[in-house]
Specification:
CATH superfamily of the domain at 176-331: P-loop containing nucleotide triphosphate hydrolases
Distance between the termini: 66 Å
Structural class: alpha/beta
Strand content: 15-25%
CATH topology of the domain at 176-331: Rossmann fold
Number of strands: 38
CATH architecture of the domain at 176-331: 3-Layer(aba) Sandwich
CATH class of the domain at 176-331: Alpha Beta
Length: 1149
Amino acid sequence: MADIVLSFVVEGTLARVVSLITEEIILQWNLKEDLKRLQESLAMIHDVLQDAEEQQVTQKAVKRWLKKLRDVAYDAEDVIDEFAYEILRRKVEIQDQPGNEVRSFFSFSKGTQYVKKAAFHVKMSHKVKNINESLDKIKKEAAEFGLKVITVDRLPQISLDRVTDSYLDNSQVVGREDDVSKIVNLLTTSCNQPLTVVPIVGMAGLGKTTVAKLVCKAAKEKKLYDVTMWVCVSDNFDEQRILGEMLQTLDKNTGGMTNKDAILKHLEKELEMKRFLLILDDVWNEESEKWESLKSRLLTICGSKGNAIVVTTRSELVASIVETSLHCRHKIRELLNDECWFIIKERVFGSGGASIPSDLEAIGREIAERCRGVPLAARVLGGTMRIKRDKKDWLSIQESKVWEVSGYNDRILPILKLSFDHLPSSLKACFAYCSIFPKDFCIEKEQLVQLWMAEGFLGTSSESSLMEAIGNKYFNDLLVNSFFQDVERNVYERIRSCKMHDLVHDLALSVSNETMALEACSNLDDMSQIRRLNLICGGKPAPALPKGGSGKLRSFFAKDVLLYDESWKFKRLRTLNLVGSGIRELPFSIGKLKHLRYLDVSWTEIAAFPDSITKLYNLMTLRLIVCTSLKKLPENIKNLISLRHIDFSYGVQMPANVGCLTSLQTLPLFVLGPDRGGAIQELECLNELRGNLAIINLEHVKDKQEAEKANLQEKKGLVALRLTWSSSREDNYNDEGVLEGLQPHSNIESLEIESYGGEKFPSWLLMNISTHSNSLHLNNLVRLELKFCENCEQIPKLGLLPHLKILMIARLVNVKRISNEFYYSNGSEIANDACRLFPVLKEFSLAFMNGLVEWMVPDVVREGCTIAFPCLGSLTIRWCHQLTSLPISYLSSLTKLKINGCGGLSYLCDVLHAFTSLEELSLLDCHKLVSIPSIQGLTSLKNLEIVACYNIVSLPSGLQSCTSLEKLTITSCSKLMSIHKDLQELRSLVYLYISNCPSLASSPPDDCLSFLTQLKQLTIGSEELKAFPGLESIKESLEELVLICGKKELKSLPSQLQNLTALKALQIVNFTAVEAFPEWLGNLKSLEKLEIGGCENLMYLPTTMQDLCKLKRLKIYGCPLLQERCAKKGGSEWPKISHIPEIIISQFR
């Protein structure tokens, strides 16, 4: 299909040309007859396109005709766009000459201007005539070929006007339970090997990636591995890239690291003492040398036995290269016909059990049978059949000839193409464009819409207000047809990003022979047909483009390219994406790109733009995200009168005179101030703003009247608003009026107010000002954050907000009470049987509320009339020193409760045992808390943390019932006397920390540890601890141990230590009376990390230190005598440790 010219490409181009020929261009340029003739030719040719597409398969002359037509159509689009550019240019000239009488742009005048305009007119008139002559030839050839007008579509197109959100729910995975079970079993039976490799083999679309994800999920649930990493390899098997992506999974701050040795060292450090599961998805490499090289690197950094790699691949040869042994290979089966029908049925009718007409079911089952066991084909076709449920439409799919094709990719792609063929032409172009992204690329929805817009797929500037809405609709249409997957959403449940299945990506490539995406740089021999190019060069120099090869490019992506080569003549470019490239500057010639509509230089070191950028009058999108070196934009950036989206990270990058950019929809920051920003009234005309807006330095607004000039109430598209005053200002006399005047539109979903100096919040936040008595103004608010509003004495009334999910309040230090007014207005009517307070709130945080003394339950809750916080999952209270109690007894939906730094809290509640959904309970620095209520029945609890609760005498009762508990931390509880035997019932416990509890004579009880068979990390000890019982009983599972002791009578290490042969990390702290470590320390053959601290009398290490061949890191601190003896030059103990790769010796930790 690569050499076929698909009619939707030509059809889309012709449609754009027609839409560009506006009445303004016809009248202004006095080319009425020529442009009218051009329109008529395009319309006539358009009518025979479908016949030409079908005939080109058998007639090479028709194929050549279509290619010629495509080139002429692109030329015509560029010519008409030049006319539009000149009109925009003149508008800017007029805009820059206020108060002067400006002669008509198109009237003839004397001198240079006359000559330039006349020359341009002659040149463009000549171009239009040339295009008309070319089209005349094309029409003549069409007649000679006998191309006919086809009035009825051969394939019905889908009308996609319905709401499609419901399909986004995770659908049930069908028929893969046995596959997952077998693979997990292969992994667990090989746990004694350093590295096991299990390939999952199967043809495209069978669900190998889905099975791998299910294996990951099962491995996490069974706690088989400490770390899980995922790398999509695809056809670029680059060892350094794979290792780098593994490291980024573990540490996101290591992105961009290019030195392989550095990557390996970081990986080794991150993976020490950890078992890992690595998924290498979609592997194509058939060179065994490359695999062996990667495998040897991974074996070198393996921190322990039991590591595993799962490889998904379509190739049996790849599987034979990577598998540990033949029995490790898992071949994924095709689905049964009934399973394919189940997928189609669920996609079409949902999971509600709706009745299906028998005639439709019969056709549907036949289609399911013809999917030949491929779930992707069933899912994609199900999306198509969902939109069109008429019998004739299903029959057109059933009777299609594509079912007769056999073979590998030839078997699946035609099936998927059935859904593509049913799309409208506009959607076909948008889908084909996505082939510019590499496989497994995370596609940002907003960015994709802006890229479509730059290509003209969403209409022209004359339809400017509709383009983004059309783009969002197109995105959802492709999503509902399963061309996109792996959707991620933000807190407002809006789609943020998606991916394409690799087979769907193959389909996009097959229908777009104008797009090339290169992950491995090589010379490009022929670019005559390429109009979209993506170079991913991994920091290497970009390849040499053929002479003149860049002249036809419309979209150019260059990631990791070292230099922007000015010799690349991008005269037709619509999109230039240089994200993450090595550029530091753009050439002055950038201003010659008249057609450019999208420019992205995010994550580059670019320091300044040339002034010529202000001549890009067609530019719609400018992205400058994390350009840390860019301190200022050109003064005349206001001349970019078509600009709709500007995205930047720092206030100094805000455009000057931004109020002139009246088409703006994206403006992340608006900075006020005479030196750094603009005036608030510049926002007045920017009523097209969408998404997020932060207004900074509001102290520069003098009063309510001036604030109202921002006209925020008219900005219906804003979703998130942040209002910030400087914390370092001298006065705040005008804050209340200013905030009152900044009332947003009721569509706002997120609101953040920071460093507001008023004593009360504005009326639009405090009370009902809607025309409807039963509706608050901020009815759509999902997230609210109030912080550093230090003069406010009352929190706004928020309890009746129907959509509020996240509420964060911090540093409102003058608020003394949370009472009825927080939940509802005194005049509010609360229905006894229906009203809920904070009905959907999921996260609530109070922090640094130094004046807060009391938090009350609302009267209506106390009286049983209604309920509050019915959906609250997370409650965090931090550093509220004067708060003595918490009204949490009715918060039974909590999954996370964290109380930190509430020194006045003496009582928790009596019904903690009713919190059956609670997974995390943290009590930190609650100095007056005497007891913790029973936690009997908290079977979901996974993490219990009690730290610096000095008056706690005993642990809460019911601990034995917390059978899901994985982590228990008890530290700095000075009055804690004992830890009872309930501990032995915690069979899921993996991490146990008990330290700095001086009243504990022994911890834990002697016979407790033997029951904790899952325990991997143990910290025990305090200054008073005299014994370390039970250590020997956990010798099989324990991997990390910290022993803390301070008693001088303990002159040796506990002898039980010598039996902990699985131990990988050991810390020995405050054994102050010990002078020498025993020789049996050398028995700990698995030890990889040893830390010795605060052993002030320690002088000698055992000679068996040299037997610890796996020991990679030794740290010694606070051991003055040993520190002297371990000196590298002349220290008597140095020969015992000199073999250890990493040695750190210091006075302090």
